[in-house]
Q: What sequence folds into this?
């Protein structure tokens, strides 16, 4: 089938998990591997229905570790690959994510965060999605706050994975993943779709881990096309041969981390709401953006100059955006559904230039606007 059949152009009333499916297909996803787990099951179920119908492959792994490795292997063979899980299942994928980072295999992982052992909303995975895998690495993590953004950000995740040859994670949580909202899917011709750069060198001249610059991304060659490459988690040189020489190890990991970190200003986008005159600035990501925006409105109605910095890409950390916030506001409040994980990073970047506070809870539901407003009023008093 042609590319057009992948894109369900039009206006829909769609669940968040299904929006992730449609975003992946619009990006060109042609391989999905997954293992059942709530509240992410609709991603696998949707892929099982939709992907084979557009010429792709759906594979149910025996567990999460099998699924992440299957996605990595499919990526090396040239596929645009994806897997999806929830918090407990994400634990099991760490080894496979470490491998994908080391061999620079582009793929997308959807992590629908849930409370430990229960199907309730949380954002407690926010540090694990950055640091869970072993070894030096720098993850790209996107945090949609609406069903529309779940579609948009899943498509973007594939583009970033292809551009930087690295795994990219899309985080949501139970309430966002299972809610239904308006979703508008544009014409296929209006979508930006990025494909990894293939090598134009012969197999004898190709160095699979050689990049054009210190922070560059190597050109790609598919498995099974005459290019013989060792894809090892061990330190390796530009040819892919295992190399324990410390300088070779350092060059590899400086580039793997640098290709993301040095491009963070392009990757880590934020959106500003009512911040031009704000004395109190909220910072939120994911579904917590929604009550935070309502809290800003309530505060403004009471004469409190509040605003919001919406974090679309929590990792790599938008350092400069937070520093700018601290330079212009009297106080910065981090809003999140956990005990204050991302808040620590925000407070580090604020670096004493403004007062800081936290609107945090981990009770299985997002904040209400009134709960956030109460923190705003406390900080103001």
A:
């Amino acid at each position: 089938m042609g590319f057009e059949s992948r894109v369900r152009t039009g206006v829909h009333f769609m669940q968040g998990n299904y929006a992730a499916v449609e975003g992946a297909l619009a990006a060109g996803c042609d391989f999905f591997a997954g293992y059942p787990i709530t509240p992410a099951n609709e991603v696998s179920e949707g892929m099982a229905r939709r992907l084979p119908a557009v010429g792709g492959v759906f594979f149910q792994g025996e567990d999460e570790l099998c699924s992440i490795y299957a996605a990595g292997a499919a990526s090396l063979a040239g596929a645009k690959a994806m897997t999806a899980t929830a918090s407990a299942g994400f634990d099991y994928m760490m080894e496979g994510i470490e491998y994908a980072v080391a061999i620079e295999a582009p793929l997308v992982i959807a992590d629908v965060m849930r409370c430990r052992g229960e199907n309730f909303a949380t954002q407690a995975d926010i540090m694990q999605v950055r640091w869970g895998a072993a070894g030096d690495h720098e993850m790209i993590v996107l945090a949609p706050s609406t069903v529309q953004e779940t579609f948009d950000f899943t498509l973007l995740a594939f583009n970033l994975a292809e551009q930087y040859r690295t795994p990219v994670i899309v985080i949501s949580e139970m309430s966002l993943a299972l809610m239904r909202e308006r979703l508008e899917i544009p014409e296929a011709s209006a979508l930006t779709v990025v494909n990894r750069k293939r090598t134009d060198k012969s197999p004898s001249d190709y160095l699979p881990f050689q990049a054009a610059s210190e922070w560059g991304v190597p050109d790609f060659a598919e498995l099974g096309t005459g290019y013989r490459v060792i894809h090892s988690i061990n330190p390796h040189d530009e040819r892919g041969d295992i190399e324990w020489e410390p300088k070779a190890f350092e060059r590899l990991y400086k580039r793997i981390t640098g290709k993301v970190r040095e491009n963070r200003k392009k990757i880590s986008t934020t959106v500003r709401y009512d911040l031009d005159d704000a004395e109190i600035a909220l910072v939120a990501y994911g579904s917590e953006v929604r009550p935070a925006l309502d809290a800003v409105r309530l505060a403004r109605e009471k004469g409190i100059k509040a605003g919001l910095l919406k974090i679309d890409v929590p990792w790599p950390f938008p350092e400069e955006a937070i520093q700018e916030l601290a330079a212009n506001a009297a106080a910065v409040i981090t809003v999140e559904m956990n005990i204050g994980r991302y808040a620590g990073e925000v407070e580090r970047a604020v670096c004493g230039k403004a007062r800081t506070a936290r609107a945090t809870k981990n009770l299985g539901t997002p904040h209400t606007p009134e709960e956030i407003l109460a923190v705003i009023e406390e900080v103001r008093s």
Remarks:
- The first helix runs from residue 16 to 27.
